[in-house]
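Reopening this one. Same input as before:
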Amino acid sequence: MTARGDHVDFVRGVRLTGPAGVPFGEEPVDLVIESGRIADIAPTGVLPARGVVLQGEGGRVIPGLWDHHVHTVQWALNAERVQLGEVHRAAEAAALMASSAALPDGRVIGVGMRDALWPDEPALAALDAACGDRPAYVINMDVHSVWLNSAAFRREGFAPTADGVLREEDAFEISRRLNTADDTMADAAVRRGGERAAARGITGIVDFEMAWNAASWQRRSDAGFDAHRVEFAFYAANLARAIDEGMRTGESLAGTAELVRVGALKLITDGSLGTRTAACSHAYGDDPSNFGVFTIEPDELRDYLTTATGAGLDVAVHAIGDRAVASALDAFTYTQARGTIEHAQLVRHADLARFARLGVAASVQPEHAVDDRDLVGTLWQHQQAISHPVESLLAAGIPVRFGSDAPVAPLDPWLTIAAAVHRTGDDRAPWHPEERVSVDAALRASSHRGGTELELGGIADLVLCGADPLTAGREDLRRMPVTATLLGGRLTHLA
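Same output, byte for byte:
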C-alpha cells in the first residue's frame, strides 16, 4: 500500500498529455521513476513493476501544477481571519467585524473587502462606532487598500484619514506588520496551506510575500517543510541586501534539497483596478480626473532593472493598467532585463508585438477576469486597450504563466484553469469569449514557467487526476478530484 511521503518507483496504467503522450495516444502507459526523474515510459505491462507502485487505474497524469503568483503568508493567515468576500455593504462589513472574535493580541482582522462594488463607502466613524476600542483592520481583496478604525490607527502610529482608508504603500505596510507579527503562527499556517495546495495538485509556487523571504523559507525548510517547490521574490527595499548576499535568480538555498530557489526582484509600478489606482490611458468611469497612479516612475523603474540585470537577477514588474504595462515594456526594452510583467490586466493592442519580441513572460491570473468583470464594466468603461487578455497574449507568441494572486483569488489551480477556459464563474455567458483558451494551453500555463516536464529524464513532479481534464466541463474542472500529487516522485498527497 502506498502512503503520503512514499517515494514512488513505478506508476501503473496512466494516460499522458502533451508530446510525451503522442506515441501512445489514449492507451495507458507505465512510468518508471528513478532518483526523482522519469526514467522510462512504456505501454502498460511491457515493463516489470518494481519497488513502490502507484496504481493509476487509467487516470490522466499531467505535469505538476504551479501557482506563479502567491502572497504565501497573507494567503495562509487569511484562512483564520474574518471573511468579507460575500459582504455587499460597508455597514454590513462593520457589523460583522464588531461581532467577530479578536485575535489573542486584541486585533480583529477582516479580509476580502470589495468596496468598489458597495453602494455605501467605508468611513472611519462607522468602523469606530461598530468596533470601539478594539483595533479593527479590513483588508481589500486586492490588498492595495485597508480600512482601519481609530484604535488601529493609534496602534500602528498612522494619522487617521477622513474615510479610515490607507492605500498603496501605506496599506502594504499595514499588511506586512499583520503578517509578521508571529513567525511561529505564520509558519504553522504556511505548513497547513502547503498540504491544502498539494491536495489540489500544486508542486510549486512563486512567493511574492512582502518580507525578506530568503530567511523565512530557510527557516521553514530547516523545520521540515517539503510540500512543494518555491521560488521566492524580494522587493526593492531588499535589493541591495540580495546583491550583497550574492543571490542570483535560479540558485537554490543551501540545505533546502533544491526545493527553494531565488526568484525575482518584485517591483510594484501602479495600483489596482478595485482601488482605482491602476495607471490607465483613459479616466476611471466614476471620476473623470482619475487616471490611476505610477508608484514607481518610469526613469526609476529603468534604474531598478539596470541594477538587477547587472547582478544576475530577474525582475517581476507589477503592471495592471495599460500605461504601467507600456512603461514596463519601455524599461525591459532599454535594459534587456529578463522576467515577467505581473497581472497585465489592460494591454494596448500595439504593445502585444513588442511584448513578444522582448521575450518577457506575462504572469496573469485568469480568475481575476471572472471576479473583475463587473468592475471593468463601470470603472474601465472608457478604456480602449484589451482587458484581462489571455488568448491575445498567447496568439502574439508571449510566454504566459498562470497564478492566483492568492489570497486575492483562491490558491487552486483548477479554478484558474476553469476561468481561463470558460471565462465565467457563474451562469452568465463567457466574458469576452475571444480570450478563452484551450485546456491544453491552460495546463501548459499552469506548469512550471509555462513549460512541461512530463518527458523522459524530466523531474517526476506529477498530478494524477480523478477525472479527465481534457473532456471536463466547467464545474468538473473547478472541482477536479486529485488522486495523487508527486514531487520528485515523492507522494505529497494521496486521496
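So the earlier flakiness isn't reproducible anymore. For the record, The mean pLDDT is 96.
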